[in-house]
Design goal:
This protein is an all-alpha fold. Helices cover 72% and strands 0% of the residues. It contains two helices and no strands. It is rod-shaped. It starts with a helix and ends in a 6-residue tail after the last helix.
């Protein structure tokens, strides 16, 4: 059971890091849909 919790937490951490990396590189939906580097 502990391994399930640990693997779940690791997956969440990886997802959060990947999300912030994409946002910082300008891959968020606002800039994708508008075509400009605009933060809504």
């Amino acid at each position: 059971m502990k391994m399930v919790l640990i693997s779940g937490c690791v997956a969440v951490i990886i997802a959060v890091v990947a999300y912030y990396v994409l946002i910082s590189t300008g891959m968020d939906s606002a800039s994708v849909y508008s075509g400009e580097n605009v933060r809504l």
